[in-house]
Amino acid sequence: MKINLFNILILSIFCFSSCKGQEVKKEELNEKAQNYLADYNELIDTLTTYHPALYEFTSKSDFEKKVKQLRNEIDNTTTKEDFIWKLSEVIAKVNCGHTSLGFFNQQRDLLKPKDYFPLLTRLIHNKLYVIDNLTNKDKVEIGQEISQINGKSISEIMSNIYAHINSQADIESSKRRLFNGYNTAIIPYALNFPNAYKIKIAGKNGTISLKSLHKNPPYAPLFSKKHPCQSDFCLTEVNAETVLLTLRNFAYYGDKTKLFLNFLNSSFNEIKTEGYRNLIIDVRENLGGPAEASIHLLKYTLQEPFQYFVNSDFGRNEIYQPFENNFKGKIIFVMNGDGYSTVGHLASIYKDKNRVVFVGETLGSNQFCTANQKQFELTNTKFTYSVARNIFITAIQEKDPKAAIEPNIEIEQSIDDFLSDKDVVLEKAIALTKK
Questions:
Q1: How far apart are CA 11 and CA 402, in angstroms?
Q2: Of 63, 206, 385, 394, which one's alpha carbon is 20 to 30 angstroms from that of 243?
Q3: How far is CA 50 from CA 47, 68, 100, 347, 356, in A?
């Protein structure tokens, strides 16, 4: 049969019309998918109702576009793991340190041992290194760099992961710290739960098939066991002229606030009595706490009156006077991506007053903070999440809410430093006191 151009055109139109008609009809959601959709809409309603700066870091149009995209992806194939991964992405879009699903524990609790990535790793200078080979001791060496997992580059995987980790002002160092604490659980989500893992080692040919785990993997340590302080706060002499003030936690609320303030009182009395000339303040892994903790420390370390908040939903804009026995010597401020909330307020004022030398990594918070978060629970899945409800901004010259607090001297452990448990950041801080 002879087919001319007219026949082809008619057939094409008929096919297009038929296909288009089929696309209009969408599969009806089953009960489980309907519950996911209802919980998703519940989350979005809560965010838009309570968060005071929802579009501060992401435009309303971009946020709504992401919301719509993820909503449309919910279907009858969506699993509980898929769903919480979608929730994490939309929450991460807010770029708020106090609006989150918590750490990665809810996601981790959904995994079986076989689901985990069967190597404990650490991201250092954007390279992924093995720090514990777990069930794969005969296949992978500790310290080796992984360049690919299941055919995907580490940069591609990390780009996906970072899009699902919330942080204040989209600060990457904060995201990296959470990844390093939960990577055995996060990698499976980023790769959509593969049945097996194959890795490529940098500088070597071929791939390595990894053996699955038979029990849940350990957590990576938050800080070194060699650090002179193993509790929330300590004052430790370094030498006759230098003292280390470790502040790993400001979260002493209510009646407990006095415990922290009394510690600072006794510490600075000792600093004055002993005549220390150099003070190292180590706030690494400090998740924040009440403003009183930061204000009290500033009273001991600034020499002029200061205003703490320029904008607070609670109208706190008073001027504070420094204590008479305040410290006038050199201050080294040691920080990393695990410095949140009040730590950002403290550091922003130090930076504004040019009072300290910042050493370490980019701080995980800054002068702009939406906090006073409220905990919520989704109706069907029972996933819990928090949403910030109030704005707190410190009284400094910097007005850009995206401006990160960068170190004057940037330094991060190499893989060799980490494996030998060498705290090069603290070593650098101590060295600076001798100059």
A1: 56
A2: 394
A3: 6, 20, 13, 27, 36
For the chain, what percent of residues have pLDDT higher than 70? Answer: 94
Backbone angles phi, psi at 378, to 5 degrees: -70, 140
Domain-by-domain residue ranges, the chain? 233-366+404-432
Mean pLDDT, residues 207-230: 92
Residue type, 47: L
Measure the CA–CA gap between 39 and 31, rounded to whole angstroms. Answer: 12
Angle at the Cα of 164 from the Cα atoms of 160 and 170, rounded to 5 degrees: 100
Asked if 316 contacts 401 with a C-beta cutoff of 8 angstroms, the reply is no
Q: Per-residue confidence at 316, pLDDT binned at 50, 70, 90?
A: confident
Do residues 296 and 259 make contact, with C-beta atoms less than 8 angstroms apart? no
Q: Give the integer Cα–Cα distance in Å for 52 and 387.
A: 10
The reported pLDDT for the residue numbered 223 is: 81
Whether domain 233-366+404-432 has CATH 2.70.20.10: no
Reply yes or no on whether the pLDDT at 5 is more than 60. Answer: no
Q: What is the pTM of this model?
A: 0.91
Alpha-carbon distance of 331 to 355, in angstroms, equals 7
